[in-house]
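Task: sequence in, structure out. Protein: Tetratricopeptide repeat protein.
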Amino acid sequence: MKISQFSLPKFTIVPLSLLAIVTLSGCAKSPQDLNVVTHNASNTLEPPSTSTASDEIFSIMHIPKAVLQEYQKKAVKEPNNYQAQIKAAISYHEQGNDEQAIAYYKKAIQINPESGEAYNNIGNIYFRDKHEPQISIPYYEKATKVQPGYGYGWLNLVIAQKQVGNVSDAISAIQNGLKKVSNQSGTVYQMLKTYEMRLQASS
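Result:
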């Protein structure tokens, strides 16, 4: 499914209150099908995609162009509004302008340097759109450093490490993530647990 981060890694997203900016598309048949997960403005995560990590990792549900333009205008009018910068970044990504998207994510980071969301979504751009998983890794690492309990960052770090062949680093990231992510009944925590079993079985 082609759209936009957004996400997981997936840069794909679930509706912004049913409006929608998506982080991942599709449903995974197994943890091996997981792609990068994107954390969107409403903190929602769509199920992992069945596509490979190099395919649909960052897609966004269709949002009318007029709405996207409103996101961009609001970000300019409210330069200190964190969510406005995030939405503008998602908007630019949807329109194929990843450089502007990254610029707005960086503005969001300046406003709230303790949030892992923007770092995560920059990582997703490099992972999916630029096909440079190695470059995405430091962004995921930063996301988990500034916000240790941010499960999306840990999950995407695992996926990126696995993608570049660093299985031991992926397992280490899973173990660290499981210690930091507090919601043990949450989807991301369970995905980390399942991924851990898969990687340990294959290593």
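The mean pLDDT is 76.
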